[in-house]
Write a structure and sequence with these properties.
The chain has helices at about 1-10, 10-15, 20-30, 45-60, 65-75, 90-105, 120-125, 155-165, 175-190, 190-205; strands spanning about 80-85, 110-115, 135-140, 145-150. The chain is α+β, with helices and mostly antiparallel strands. The chain has one domain: Glutaredoxin.
Length: about 210
């Protein structure tokens, strides 16, 4: 699997990737044409994307990074890449990527690069979550494009909640379940995401 990942994550992949601002501009342009990313172009996916723009706008303004996390990020002294696999219609991505972007902005050693899942199926299949193409997926890379560690697709609480829901929905509709997920994100304010990323960075960089 490691050899497969190393072959898939290449300089040309990063060259074709997008910065966060480029990603946002692409989404806005697509929405102006009543389109979203990926092959599924339904009104439902368009509505997900419109909602995600609102979520990202909100987090761009309100997401807070703790002083402990800021100190940790600024202490990273080697060049690294945050490579994120995503899609515009993905609600979990909209909730997490703005915070990850703010982290990258704290340290010039960190580059944030975004690639689309459905344009990179082989890469996605090298980073499945319990057999599923779940996004977003953050891959932390060295300057030699070695995989140092991953996070995603969502905080552990939500991942466990989703697994339980799939086993027994308990009469809750998918719409109600989704609304509960996004309410949790609003209340959590990226605290769980930050805690999990801190653990990841500590394990990678021996901080």
């Amino acid at each position: 699997m490691l050899d497969q990942q190393l072959k898939l994550i290449t300089p040309s992949l990063l060259e074709s990737s997008q910065s966060y601002s480029e990603y946002r501009e692409m989404i806005d342009k697509l929405l102006s044409q009543n389109k979203t990313t990926g092959p599924i172009q339904t009104e439902g996916y368009l509505e997900y994307t419109r909602m995600n723009v609102k979520r990202m706008n909100r987090w761009d303004k309100t997401a807070k990074i703790s002083s402990e996390m800021e100190e940790m990020i600024k202490s990273i002294s080697i060049p690294i890449v945050f490579l994120v696999i995503t899609e515009a219609w993905c609600g979990d991505a909209a909730q997490s990527i703005p915070y990850i972007s703010k982290l990258a902005d704290l340290n010039p050693n960190i580059q944030l690069k975004l690639v689309l899942r459905d344009e990179n199926p082989d890469l996605m299949d090298a980073y499945l979550t319990e057999g599923a193409r779940s996004i977003p997926k953050l891959i932390v890379l060295s300057d030699k494009l070695e995989d140092l560690g991953t996070w995603g697709p969502r905080p552990k609480y939500l991942q466990d909640r989703l697994k339980a829901y799939k086993l027994d929905p308990m009469g809750i509709s998918s719409k109600e379940f989704s609304e509960g997920t996004h309410l949790w994100y609003a209340k959590d304010k990226n605290r769980s995401l930050e805690s999990e990323l801190m653990d990841l960075f500590k394990s990678i960089f021996d901080l």
